[in-house]
Every structure is written in structure tokens, then in C-alpha cells.
């Protein structure tokens, strides 16, 4: 005898597979972004720090070479605002929301009051007294 399958079983497994695939794609993208950012950081700053320690021990590093490594680190710091929007959608949205050069034409501009209230956590609240808090 064959037992018929319930129609909900294939749907549940396909939904779970779809969720797993979506979750694994997000995790892969996040790890790729983190790998790129950390890789660029180490490539740019590790030679500077190794040279710094070497300079402290033997004082044999030419000043021009040290300056080049310092500027390599500065270039990495300059690249971060370019790298983050390329790989992170939330960062791109935040940039578009608060910077006028990155805002779309149809989006309203946030007011200074709403920004300060949002940042200071002093938005409209229900009146609280010390008695209610304790």
C-alpha cells in the first residue's frame, strides 16, 4: 500500500529550502564584504605597523619609505566610504537619506529637528514621572 503525501509537505520543504538559500546567499555576501574590507585593511596597514616596530628596534627604515606606507594606510581610509556603499545596501540607503548629493529627486529632505530628535532619543513620549519609573 502507498500512503498519499499531504499537499502541505512539499510546500513546507520548498519554503524552507528557499529560506535556507536566501539566508545562505545573505551570509555569503556578508562574509565576502567583511573579507574584502578586512583584506584591504591588512594590506594597507600591516606594512605600516611592521615598519613602525622595525623602526623602533633598529632605526633602519628610510623616511621616504615610511611616508609611502603611511599614505597607503590613508588611502585605505579614503576607500572605505567608497567600499561600504558598493557592498552594503543599508549604508547606501542611509547615505541617500541624509546627504543631499545622494538623495533621489522624489525623496523628501529630513528636517533638522527630526534628525536631532531621532539622534537624541528625545522624541514624543508619554509623560513619565519618577513614581512611574520606580
UniProtKB/TrEMBL annotation:
Domain G-protein coupled receptors family 1 profile span(s) in chain numbering: 1-84
InterPro entries hit by this protein: GPCR_Rhodpsn, GPCR_Rhodpsn_7TM
Membrane topology per record: Multi-pass membrane protein
Location within or outside the cell: Cell membrane
GO MF annotations, alphabetized: G protein-coupled receptor activity
A Pfam family: 7tm_1
Ranges for region Disordered: 113-134
Lineage: superkingdom: Eukaryota
GO cellular component term, pick one: plasma membrane
Keywords noted in UniProt: Cell membrane, G-protein coupled receptor, Membrane, Receptor, Transducer, Transmembrane, Transmembrane helix
Transmembrane segments: 27-48, 68-87
Main location: membrane
PANTHER family according to UniProt: ADRENERGIC RECEPTOR-RELATED G-PROTEIN COUPLED RECEPTOR
Protein name per the record: 5HT6R protein
